[in-house]
Amino acid sequence: MTKLLGTLLFAGVAASSVLPAQAQETLKIGGIGPLSGGGTAWGLAVQRGVEMAIDEVNAQGGLKIGDKTYKPELVMYDDKYTATGGRTAAERLVNFDKVQFIVGPIGTPSAMAAAPITNQARAIMLSNGYAPEILKNGGKEAYNFRAMNSNVEFGPAMVKWLKQNHPAVKKVALIVPNDATGQVVMPTLGQTYKENGYDVWSEKYERGSKEFTPLLTRMMAQGVDLLDLNLNAPGEAGLLVKQARQIGFKGLIWQVGGPAIDEINDIAGPNAEGFLSYDVFDFRDPHAQKFVDSYKKRWSGVINAQTPGWYNATRILFKAMQNAGTATDTDKVRAALQDLEGYDAGIYGPVVWGGEKAYGVNRQLLNRFWITQIKGGKPQTVTSLTPAKE
Asked: Mean pLDDT, to the nearest integer, of 244-263?
């Protein structure tokens, strides 16, 4: 952690030397996500998405807010995809680093643990995670926004698409982690399947598992037609795909949540052929090329699909600060965020907020999403869908 912060601080000092003289006031942006373990790809997506938005404004001379110009700087902590890690990261950011704006965390355990701390500190947090309580915590007086769709937003649309396009599927398996994520996903997604006429079999596993063959053997004995990986982290999801095929499962495998199709393809190899997934960005779209080129100037390898979402979240946060005319009054920035509908950050189109019916607050960002499939060893876009605004 010290090494990471040191690197970020050094980068910030180096960047300041090429900025105009007026862009000297630092604006700390907190980041929370898993930078170790099975969820590492998602944590890197948070870190890199935020850094891309920061690089962009700093290259333009800083973030101009009111009569001041700021140099945003990321302060990132590894939450290890756990509640303890999320709580510790949030406490350090608001109490030690004096951060008022946080992007992340991703994942229910960490987001659930961070939200009470950031709300009490009146720090704005643009997080992810599927638990309804993440947005319900604190109600309208809270400072927490959700930057990406949850399965409440995309689950019904995907299951409806499945029913229309794969009518032979009758029985579905849900394999979920034995933690807060699984406790949220199982009843919500399971109910969506049942409402559409599917039989549902489910079982839990311990987070961090590497061997799934016994569990998958029990699944196959149930005669299921489809395995849904839901919000399983990339490392575990990839192993589930690989091992399911290795023991002879012939049914469909898809993931209603947890976008990481490139990472899963890398882990499962040829066994990933035909795998379908919820996806939050289409890197193959010609309009995405600018984002891809910008990313590859700094990093090589697979771009996690959530990276554009965190870039988008940071961009709309910056725009809300500019509209509010302040980088210190979080009440004004919160109000500006809520009034930001129509602003296009260049990723998903105009901002649309929803969530009033499901969560009691209109702070759920409704983003266009995709269904992607591995064909010929590569991800290919199948279709795109849009969540309905309540």
From this structure: 93
- pTM (predicted TM-score): 0.82
φ/ψ (deg, to 5) at 77: -125, 145
What is the mean pLDDT of the segment spanning 178-196? 84
pLDDT digit string (tens) for 93-105?
Answer: 999 999 999 999 9
How many CA atoms does the CB half-sphere of 202 hold within 13 Å?
Answer: 21
- Domain boundaries in the chain? 2-149+287-351, 151-279+370-385
The superfamily in CATH containing domain 151-279+370-385 is Response regulator (3.40.50.2300)
Annotate the chain with three-state secondary structure.
CHHHHHHHHHHHHHHHCCCCCCCCEEEEEEEEECCCCCCHHHHHHHHHHHHHHHHHHHHCCCEEECCEEEEEEEEEEECCCCHHHHHHHHHHHHHHCCCCEEECCCCHHHHHHHHHHHHHCCCEEEECCCCCHHHHCCHHHCCEEECCCCHHHHHHHHHHHHHHHCCCCCEEEEEEECCHHHHHHHHHHHHHHHHCCCEEEEEEECCCCCCCHHHHHHHHHCCCCEEECCCCCHHHHHHHHHHHHHCCCCCEEEECCCCCHHHHHHHHHHHHCCCEEEECCCCCCHHHHHHHHHHHCCCCCCCCCCHHHHHHHHHHHHHHHHHHCCCCCHHHHHHHHHCCCCCECCCCCECCEECHHHHCCCCEECCCEEEEEEECCEEEEEEEECCCCC
Domains 2-149+287-351 and 151-279+370-385 share a fold: yes
Q: Copy the structure tokens of residue 318.
A: 């910056």
- CATH of segment(s) 2-149+287-351: 3.40.50.2300
pLDDT at 75: 98
So what's the pLDDT on residue 390? 63
> What are the pLDDT digits (tens) for 280-316?
899 888 889 999 999 999 999 889 989 999 999 999 9
Neighbour-count burial for 302-336, b at 16+ CB within 10 Å, e otherwise: bbbbbbbbbbbbbbbbbbbbbbbebbeebebbbeb
The single residue listed with the structure tokens 């049942």 is 194
Report residue 194: phi and psi, to 5°: -65, -40
**Could you give the CA distance from residue 68 to residue 185 in angstroms, rounded to a whole number?**
44
| The predicted structure's pLDDT at residue 22 | 53
